[in-house]
């Protein structure tokens, strides 16, 4: 935005037009819908996140970033998730 002589803000030459804003809004909506569909169709994502939060709340680490890095780089994590997926399929 530019500042006029009296201190008021003037038009921003870099701002989006109303047509561009509408396209951006529609893009954001479609992206959210696509993300939601993806998450609903990939149970492993839910298992990853719920497992992480469960462990985080149980262990209450002082350094959450370090804990997250260790949790998500655990070489046994894929096997754990796979086992959980199999258990849920059998239980369904």
UniProtKB/TrEMBL annotation:
InterPro entries linked: RIIAD1
SUPFAM superfamilies (UniProt xref): Dimerization-anchoring domain of cAMP-dependent PK regulatory subunit (SSF47391)
Protein name: RIIa domain-containing protein 1
Species this protein is from: Pipistrellus nathusii
